[in-house]
Amino acid sequence: MTPVLRLAEPVAGARMLGLGSHQPERVVTNDELAQRIDTNDQWIRERVGIRSRRIAADDVSLVDMASDAGARAVKDSGLDPSEIDGVLVATCTMPNFIPNAAAQTAERIGIRAPAAFDLNAACAGFCYGLGMAADMVRGGTARHVLIIGAEKLSDWLDWDDRSTAIIFADGAGAAVIGPAPDAAAVGVGPVAWGSAGEMNQAIRILDGHGSKAGGALHQEGQAVFRWATTQVAPVALRAIELAGLTPADIDVFVPHQANLRIVEAVAKKLRRHGAREDMRVADDIVYSGNTSSASVPLALDHMRADGRVRSGDTVLLVGFGAGLSFAGQVVRFP
């Protein structure tokens, strides 16, 4: 007789238990950038909506930022680090890819022997990781998973390239995902994800372009803008549909903070499809810049601090970026 393999016991679903974030101390204004490159405050604000951004010091690493954000999320969840059995770090800016960021981050937080791995879906990374973390919990392969989006984009920028230097920044955001006790308490909806591989050259690293990392981030800005303003709203609507909701059920919309004009365009399309006029929309890019995989959890944590998202709110998250990759889901805010 062929032996039957035993599977982990699944649970009703997953929910978000805690949130945390980290931003570097240094604030870089548009006026400061204008001292180096041909730009000015008005030009930047009109095109991308950014007034300032945070840049990490040379001696602050991506793992430093990930560890601080992750520790804050674990504390916020009310769990002890020993209760975390999975750590995922979404990032596309590690200076070296071995060892991974996740195992180093777990060790610093005091999480012993968890499943630990990195994933790279660029600016969609946190939403990809959240989908994976929720499935790990729901399938019974982990009980509590820490998902962190962390980037040190400043190491991968050519600071003389106006098209990227004005946009990107550093930071980390994290969430703890755990089991829902029953179907009524499920707090993370199904993920709507995919990719547009034909756009793979729209955002890429070019070798030997004056960055600290030895390669510099390059972006076809207009191509990305056209794609995002036409293709992100359908992903958001699909995530709402998969969760069994309607656009009118969404209290808060937190898209990847790529460009304020993109954020506003997507929110406008959602309202055309039934989202409420009082739906609160994240605009963290104004003072944080584009932090890639960190932008969604950073924006969500900042909205909580400002009182713009509250316990029980229905929140729509959407990430999109290099690849091109995209992902979104609806969550119930803890």
From TrEMBL:
Main enzyme class: transferase
Keywords, in A-Z order: Acyltransferase, Cytoplasm, Fatty acid biosynthesis, Fatty acid metabolism, Lipid biosynthesis, Lipid metabolism, Multifunctional enzyme, Transferase
Residue intervals of the Beta-ketoacyl-[acyl-carrier-protein] synthase III N-terminal domain: 117-197
Biological role: Catalyzes the condensation reaction of fatty acid synthesis by the addition to an acyl acceptor of two carbons from malonyl-ACP. Catalyzes the first condensation reaction which initiates fatty acid synthesis and may therefore play a role in governing the total rate of fatty acid production. Possesses both acetoacetyl-ACP synthase and acetyl transacylase activities. Its substrate specificity determines the biosynthesis of branched-chain and/or straight-chain of fatty acids.
Active site location: 123, 256, 290
GO molecular function, one term: 3-oxoacyl-[acyl-carrier-protein] synthase activity
Domain Beta-ketoacyl-[acyl-carrier-protein] synthase III C-terminal: 241-332
GO process terms (BP): fatty acid biosynthetic process; secondary metabolite biosynthetic process
Keyword Acyltransferase among UniProt keywords: yes
Protein family membership: Belongs to the thiolase-like superfamily. FabH family.
NCBIfam families listed in its UniProt record: fabH, PRK09352.1
Superkingdom classification of source: Bacteria
Annotated segments matching region ACP-binding: 257-261
One of the Pfam families matching this protein, by short name: ACP_syn_III
Name of the protein in its database record: Beta-ketoacyl-[acyl-carrier-protein] synthase III
This protein's domain notes: The last Arg residue of the ACP-binding site is essential for the weak association between ACP/AcpP and FabH.
Gene name per UniProt: fabH_1
Pathway note: Lipid metabolism; fatty acid biosynthesis
Cross-referenced Gene3D superfamilies: 3.40.47.10
Cellular component aspect of the GO annotation: cytoplasm
